Recover the amino acids of this structure.
């Protein structure tokens, strides 16, 4: 019944979205995202602990200063990611479907909006991860080798992040954009 034509009293077709189907799909996606955010939150806590122990507080004399600085960059990056996933976990755990329809739909549309601020919050942890990676691989190189190695690392790291972002966009477009569009259409129909 989702996105199918319905008939009005005058037997005129309209593109109404079935509220029950939309609500069920929203609940399923919100539940999926809640679990995902919870799992990522705990995964990053584990990574913070492991990297802190291995790279920063480990008394091994073979770990040099550049290893510790690189490890610190990773740990700070993981803390940023943990904060992001904790924020989203909290947001998804506080969703209230008992709100008035218009308010609930507006919040759902906002929740699944593709916003640049969501991508911008990823810049600091990704930069820290990039810095840590670069330090790991370039600590004993001469100036010519150093520049070549830095460029090589960036030639690998940046495309991987761009491809990851594009995959995230495709997932959003397939799973969440239809929910957002449905919520906006339902809002428009309620306000009409």
């Amino acid at each position: 019944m989702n996105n199918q034509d319905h008939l009005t009293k005058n037997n005129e077709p309209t593109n109404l979205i079935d509220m029950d189907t939309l609500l069920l799909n929203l609940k399923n996606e919100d539940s999926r995202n809640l679990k995902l955010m919870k799992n990522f939150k705990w995964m990053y806590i584990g990574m913070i602990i492991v990297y802190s122990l291995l790279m920063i507080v480990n008394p091994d004399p073979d770990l040099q200063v550049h290893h510790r600085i690189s490890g610190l960059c990773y740990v700070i990056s993981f803390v940023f990611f943990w904060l992001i996933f904790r924020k989203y976990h909290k947001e998804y755990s506080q969703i209230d479907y008992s709100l008035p329809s218009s308010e609930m739909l507006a919040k759902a549309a906002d929740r699944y909006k593709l916003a640049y601020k969501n991508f911008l919050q990823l810049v600091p942890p990704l930069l820290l991860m990039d810095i840590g990676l670069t330090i790991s691989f370039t600590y004993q190189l001469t100036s010519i080798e150093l520049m070549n190695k830095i460029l090589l690392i960036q030639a690998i790291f940046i495309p991987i992040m761009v491809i990851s972002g594009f995959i995230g966009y495709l997932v959003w477009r397939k799973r969440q954009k239809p929910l957002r569009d449905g919520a906006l259409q339902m809002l428009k129909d309620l306000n009409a």
